[in-house]
């Protein structure tokens, strides 16, 4: 995703995750810690604890906007320059503050040539790069939820479903095949999933989830012309892991696994996954 060209002076890679409240969660040998990404002193203290390393950072959804567009009719070498003007009426940030990158889904409906454009705040990213540089950390790669979570799924030629939830965010779905993203979407009405009771899920919410999942599976097979999903993985609040795994397995007849251990947070998983991006074989946290 977003990268900064610089000489790699250290081999050690540290995974991190930027949360909605601007806390950066960093993985270390003790399981990780958080610090305020806007506070220079906090960066200094974090760097002392981490030691010299290359930081790979995953943004949570509140820090970027993903916009699907038809590929602009320009030569490849002019594409990056054309994107800001293509998405400016769709993006929430002013043109001068847009940091853009793009990727393509593994397949697109009706063979349309589409791009997924990711827009983030250049000012926020640039300040973090500066703070990192000032403290012997190299923030040389920034990615997003939809891409970093692919690192947690084993490569499989059959489509796999992942459902994940961040506090105060919609429940999200992605479907992947062979380590590539087929599509993703959000399910509204589940922002408070971490504070809901099992009884609340039973009173209509699970039925709504089942319906949305079935629609997504139908889209996968009918519009994207892909094989049926092979499995479902979950990153959900611990109190709902057993309930959702059991009910989803009963509803769809697919194996369901929880990717988060008891007490493991989505931020910890994302930071761990960020360290894995691009198959680094250096020392990782």
UniProtKB/TrEMBL annotation:
<protein>
    <recommendedName>
        <fullName>MSHA biogenesis protein MshI</fullName>
    </recommendedName>
</protein>
<dbReference type="InterPro" id="IPR043129">
    <property type="entry name" value="ATPase_NBD"/>
</dbReference>
